[in-house]
């Protein structure tokens, strides 16, 4: 049986997805994206999982969409098969927190995959670029939209128009990643963070994720309104009452993810 291109496992309440196409630096072909989507959806449905880590290999998180398969496609090929939308967008359906653990190259679609995650942890070796311009292509898996929102227009233009590659320290300074850790600690760090997050109340985590994503997608007044409704909904949550009472009683809360 061929080895899976994407591995999925549970580590307590943390789910771990590992891209596993090392010879092609985890180039993201359809099979990889289908398997990644299926793994994400399986962890989303698993009530025992509270947060998800996506990791690549040591040399590459992922080197982008698979150029080998795209090279001879026509417009009709991509239009009729709904390229990107049909499987890359699955990550947007995931309501649980998703952490990208990036070491090595996160190029093109690999960088876009990291950008689609909620938290990006970079190893010192991480390198981020959207080099599609070198192929006379365009970052088309959210790159031209998420990158400027993440790091601002000027730096996004620079990266996309010149194919400039950022090292981990620059990516950290620009706000593309949230933490930089030594390579040897990357996976442990990401899984520890996922476990810490997963111990919190899942509906509260999902409400926070949804509200922050609203900040990206709507004017401030709409975002504030959305946030206020999400806050009111917290008062319908057993966990929220438990959390507040536990604080007042100086004890550790017990969350039932309700
Ligand atoms: N697609 C297909 N194969 C790829 C690939 C990709 N995106 N990236 C790397 N590979 C393959 C190489 O062809 C090579 O295969 P062979 O051993 O069969 O020759 C193997 O992976 C190892 O790669 P290199 O020999 O190139 O490794 P390197 O260490 O010399 O360079 C690299 C590493 C700088 C990441 C280089 O591989 C590279 O520039 N890759 C392409 C990056 C890129 O352009 N990504 C954007 C893709 S387009 C996109 O993503 C569009 C979108 O928005 C959806």
Topology readout:
Elements: E1 6-11, E2 14-19, H1 30-45, E3 51-55, E4 60-62, H2 67-70, H3 75-80, E5 98-102, E6 105-107, H4 109-116, E7 119-123, E8 127-129, H5 143-151, H6 153-162, E9 166-167, H7 168-174, E10 179-181, H8 186-198, H9 202-217, H10 220-234, H11 238-248
Parallel strand pairs: 2-3, 3-5, 4-6, 5-7, 6-8, 7-10
Antiparallel strand pairs: 1-2, 8-9
Helix pairs in contact: 4-5, 5-6, 9-10
Acetoacetyl-coenzyme A binds at residues 24-25, 27, 63-68, 105, 107-109, 112, 131-132, 135, 137, 139-141, 143.
- Are there runs of 5+ residues with pLDDT below 50, and where? none
Shape-level CATH architecture: Alpha-Beta Complex
Bound molecules: acetoacetyl-coenzyme A
> CATH homologous superfamily name?
2-enoyl-CoA Hydratase, Chain A, domain 1
How many structural domains does the protein architecture include?
1
The overall pLDDT average reads: 97
Provide the structure class.
alpha/beta
How much helicity do the residues have?
40-55%
User: What is the count of helical runs?
Assistant: 11
Determine the N-to-C terminus distance. 41 Å
Look at the structure and give the CATH class: Alpha Beta
Radius of gyration: 19 Å
CATH topology: 2-enoyl-CoA Hydratase, Chain A, domain 1
Strands, total number: 10
Instruction: Classify the beta-strand content into a percent band.
Output: 15-25%
Coarse shape:
globular
H and E string: EEHEEHHEEHEEHHEHEHHHH
Strand order of the largest sheet: 1-2-3-5-7-10
Biggest sheet record: 6 strands, mixed
